[in-house]
Automatic annotation (TrEMBL):
Residues where ATP binds: 12-19
Leader peptide range in chain numbering: none
Reaction catalyzed: uridine + ATP = UMP + ADP + H(+); cytidine + ATP = CMP + ADP + H(+)
Protein known as: Uridine kinase
UniProt pathway annotation: Pyrimidine metabolism; UMP biosynthesis via salvage pathway; UMP from uridine: step 1/1; Pyrimidine metabolism; CTP biosynthesis via salvage pathway; CTP from cytidine: step 1/3
Keywords assigned: ATP-binding, Cytoplasm, Kinase, Nucleotide-binding, Transferase
CDD domains according to UniProt: UMPK (cd02023)
Domain Phosphoribulokinase/uridine kinase: 7-193
GO MF term set: ATP binding; cytidine kinase activity; uridine kinase activity
Record organism: Rhodohalobacter barkolensis
Top-rank taxon: Bacteria
Family stated for the protein in its record: Belongs to the uridine kinase family.
Xref: Pfam families: PRK
Length: 207
């Protein structure tokens, strides 16, 4: 592929609806034209720690993620090379032996809570979207998701939220909103904003 891809970043707090927004964009633009790269896939492996220790880590600080690898991957894709995306296990807090091979695409969607707080990563993005959802709504969604899908219990989710998620959100995620080109209030339910974003992407692709 000789043309450089269009790289679209989708940031926002945990549970804000990033994945929902991204899925809507992919459905509208067409799966075969888009590659999704999630910062979540680049969480550092903690298999060297006992399980109890892993659960006590701060996963909301930039140092918890191997952002340098994600940047190398984006550079490789921009230059026409394939990459091997890590597979992360949120139940065990570990990275799998397996990877997923991804080929260069015309559009690359990048999502994650901290993608705009990393200058090197931010620099690579052509369009930056921030999904803005109230903290109480995000906490309720996260409670449900983490208990149903990530092997957590009520008190674990609440402790983690109070100790790490909320303070790191205020320190890193919320201030990074200033770098967004478009702020999407309420996330995936905001169909007007989604239509505008999709029209913008289509316009960029045809220009
Ligand atoms: N508008 C919405 N209404 C109800 N539930 C939603 C809505 N948007 C997202 N969710 C649910 O909330 C949870 C978190 O949403 P998700 O899109 O995964 O957020 P993020 O990727 O920002 O963490 C998911 O279980 C999702 O199904
Ligand atoms: N082992 C891990 C790794 C990350 N988290 C939490 O995931 C959140 C980011 O993912 P979203 O899909 O919600 O954007 C982040 O807030 C971390 O606290 C975790 O709980 N365990």
């Amino acid at each position: 592929m000789s043309e450089k891809p269009l790289i679209i970043g989708v940031a926002g707090g945990s549970g804000s609806g990033k994945t929902t927004v991204v899925s809507n964009i992919i459905q509208s633009i067409g799966e075969n034209r888009v590659l999704l790269l999630q910062h979540d896939s680049y969480y550092r492996d903690l298999s060297h720690l006992p399980f109890e220790e892993r659960t006590k880590q701060n996963f909301d600080h930039p140092s918890a993620l191997e952002t340098e690898l994600m940047i190398r991957h984006l550079d490789a894709l921009r230059n026409g090379y394939k990459i091997d995306i890590p597979v992360y296990d949120f139940v065990k807090h570990t990275r799998s032996e397996k990877t997923i091979t991804a080929l260069p695409h015309r559009i690359i969607l990048v999502d994650g809570i901290l993608i705009f707080s990393e200058p090197e990563l931010r620099k690579l993005m052509d369009i930056k979207l921030f999904v803005d959802t109230d903290g109480d709504v995000r906490l309720l969604r996260r409670l449900q998701r983490d208990i149903n899908e990530r092997g957590r219990d009520l008190s674990g989710v609440l402790n983690q939220y109070e100790k790490f998620v909320r303070p790191m959100h205020l320190e890193f995620v919320e201030p990074s909103k200033r770098y967004a080109d478009i702020i999407i209030p309420r996330g995936g339910e905001n169909l007007v904003a989604l239509e505008m974003v999709i029209a913008l992407i289509e316009g960029k692709l045809s220009s």
